[in-house]
Amino acid sequence: MESVFELLFKYRPLLYERGELAFTLPAAWMAAGGVALVLLAVLSYLRARGRAGAGARLTLAGLRLSLLALVLLLLARPVLLVPSVVPQENYLGVLIDDSRSMRIDDGVSRSAFVHETFLDEASGLRTALAGRFRLRVYRFSDVVRRVEAGETLELAGTRTRIGHALGRVRDELGSLPLSGLVLVTDGADHDADALDEALLPLKAGGVPVYTVGVGSESFRRDLEVTAVSAPTTALAGSAVVAEVTLTHAGYDGATVPVTVERDGRIMGTRDVTLDGSGTTTVRVDFEAGDPGPGTFRFRVPVRDGELVDRNNERERTVRVRSGRQKVLYFEGEPRHEVAFLRRAVADDPALQLVTLQRTDQDRYLRLGVDSAAELAGGFPRTRAELFAYRGVVLGSVEASHFSHDQLTMLEEYVARRGGGLLLLGGRRALAEGGWSGTPVAEALPVRLAPEQ
Question: Residue 337 CA to chain centroid, in angstroms?
């Protein structure tokens, strides 16, 4: 198709996309000639005599007008203006990834390729580019620096911020005639959201970005801790659960330990068998340890044959708090669960279980309270009183026992305060207790059947 287009219009479509169509004949002359041609074509057929009707005359006039317009177009001598680079007057920015991942040798040394291609003065590509442009070479990782003549890369950066680097170089070269930017990287970007923001002004300014990928797109054998989902706060001495996602290739069926460390001390570990999907997620239990901000390292050991060992761990910061957390347990009738729960947490120094058990209408048994006034009137009636508890456990108690304001407070306790709500169930709980259709039902992870 391009060959046909080039046969008809002399140049390839790409040149028409980049170029601008212009005419050698001045615009005023073309306008005057156009008006004269229209008048000539119309008047010649208005004065003509013969049997042809008005429609035929208009058709013939249109044909003559088209022919005359083509003659005028040829006389105007159309030209295609294509911008070109004037040697040594335009600048070209070259951005080279200087992070630690560029040290990887996955068949071809990444650092050697970059040095031989873009930094060596005798490189054929660099010589060709330097013959047409004024080169400005930069190295980037978490920061951006200019590379001077004879300087080598450090390859020590711990982060790769491509968007930040493009923005900094664009700002530095923005006042110069910039022909484009060459980006040399392995693509391991740690700040992907900033990339779109950096490309928009470059696109608006007509500055192209040419990317040069370095290294393999994937490794034949690799084990990586891709993501860790863990709470940001925990109680001192308590057990914490984190969800760890492993991405792996070449180790299907292998069993590896996932270890959690804090300050060099192992806080928890769990063995996981890698499946054939390439991604395995495991829940790991570990101890929070002593109070204070703690950096927890989730890691898997380096396996034989791995090319990259720096992606086998991830860190998360968890603020470990001291003090006891109060949990309110409201039970609507005498049940064994009360004794079981109190016995289960009796030796936990980080947990205080406050029990409110209804013994009769408006009569309650209170256990574990801090003062005689606490819960003296039964279940909390104000948000300040209810929100003081870290969690609320409801046993076999019907929804009609609570006022509408108390039910709304329970829903807000979960939605706004972020408190934990546990419904144990029972003959007066859940759907049997008329909880369907209440504000609390909106906070539950299940749908309750309407009361029969």
Answer: 45
Q: Which two tokens stand for residue 171?
A: 């700002």
From first CA to last CA, the distance across the chain in angstroms is 73
- pLDDT, averaged across the chain: 84
Cα separation, 317 vs 393, in Å, equals 29
CB atoms within 10 A of CB 54: 8
To the question of pTM greater than 0.70 for the whole model, the response is: no
Structural contact between residues 391 and 351, judged by C-beta atoms closer than 8 angstroms: no
Q: Which of 141, 138, 133, 130 is nearest to 169 (CA)?
A: 138
**Digit-coded pLDDT (tens) for 67-83:** 777 776 667 777 766 66
